[in-house]
Amino acid sequence: MMSRIRDWLANTPIDDPVDRRNAGFMQLLLVFEGLRIPLTKLYLFGLHWSYLHEHFYARARIGASAALAIDVGTDLAMTLSAWVGFYLIRRGRFPPAVAQFVATMLASGAVAYAAFGYHATDGNLTLMMILALSGLMLGRKALWITYAAEALILIMSVDPLKASGAGEPVGVLLAIYDLLPMRALTSYLLIALIVDRSIYALRESLLESDRRRQQLAREIAERERTHEQLLHAQKMDAVGKLASGVAHDVNNVFDIILGFSTERDRLPGEDEPMDGNTRAVADALEGIELAARRGTAVCRKLLNFSRNDVTLTEEFDAVAALEELRPLARQSLPSHCQLRVLLPSGPRIIRFDRSQFELAIINLVTNARDAMPDGGSCTITLEAAEDILAISVQDTGMGMAESIRAQVFEPFFTTKPAGHGTGLGLSVVYDLVVQAGGRIVVESVPGQGTTIRLMLPLVSAVSEMSGLRNVARAV
């Protein structure tokens, strides 16, 4: 039975962990006060009415009838406040519950002390309880506000009529000072100081423990991330070796096909007469040769990507590199996606690792492909302005929200379903560009597509841009 009650008291919708732990005790205290105050008053009224009237109400400054009304009214207010506080805690509103109970107790104490005086009341323990309660449950600020209110209550309890006979103003002030409950004021001050220091030490310990917990969580997350990166690197290494072997074997097959396709040279030339069948065979062999050369280019790129070469920075023409990369970029897109490449007429020289440059472009094209599941257009544009070369990869896909755009370069961040992406593509591109002294700009509008622009330092502009030539076509 007791365990059920304890579990029920602990089951409160309170977010703050400290308040949630204090909620059980606070509920018991409020229930106790909500029962103790009215039961005590009923006991005194029933069995000790004459003593209560003679030693308490009759000595009040405002008369017995008014004193009785104030006593009953304050007890009723404190009882209702206790049950209201209990209800608020059950609703998850812990600070308002404690604050309204403390405020009601202080207000009731102020009225009682003003009516009966300090020596005629027995509220020292109540004021001490309220002082400690406000500090432990609401914090240091509430503690000192409560102490200031209690000091004001004690000052209000002084009877100015007893000090009026001193005559001069200075004498009146000295008489009031003598009447002040200095022992209570200093005792409450010491209690407030002790509680304040205890709260400070507990809060600092809690904050330090929370900081250590967060640091430990970050270290664990970083270790798990590093472990995942290591596993992924091992997987990519195995995939690279497998792709290298497959590409090498397939490249040998394409070499054989190219060898056979060159047999068309034995056919009559363009200026010699040929019948329809011979012309069809010649065209077919030419198409076979073009397809085989395209397959050979793809295999060569795969072999380059799978090599574990050391970073080799060199100066090369980005225009020519994109021209050579166009077949592999085309292969990265499905048939329902178009590839458009807009390049300037002259060379644009950059300093970069050639294989890493190609890897970055293919990663961007692959991301464009994934953003257009229903088809669309991927446009690669190269523009030069002063000493900066801008390479843009634009898609007409679904775009992305600002919250996603802010995280696209984080390792392992992906919006793709499990098994369809590692979240490393754009992270790799970002690292490569930054290492080359460049930067990346991402522009995206949900529903309108995304443009990722690589800004690389230009080594030299050999010739002025005479315009863009559109080499885009659906292949």
UniProtKB/TrEMBL annotation:
Record organism: Luteibacter rhizovicinus DSM 16549
The reaction(s) this protein catalyses: ATP + protein L-histidine = ADP + protein N-phospho-L-histidine
Coiled coil (UniProt feature): none
Lineage: superkingdom: Bacteria
GO molecular function: protein histidine kinase activity
Entry's EC annotation: 2.7.13.3
Record PANTHER family: SENSOR HISTIDINE KINASE, TWO-COMPONENT SENSOR PPRA
Protein name: histidine kinase
Pfam families given in the database record: HATPase_c (PF02518)
InterPro entries on file: HATPase_C_sf, HATPase_dom, His_kinase_dom, Sig_transdc_His_kin-like_C
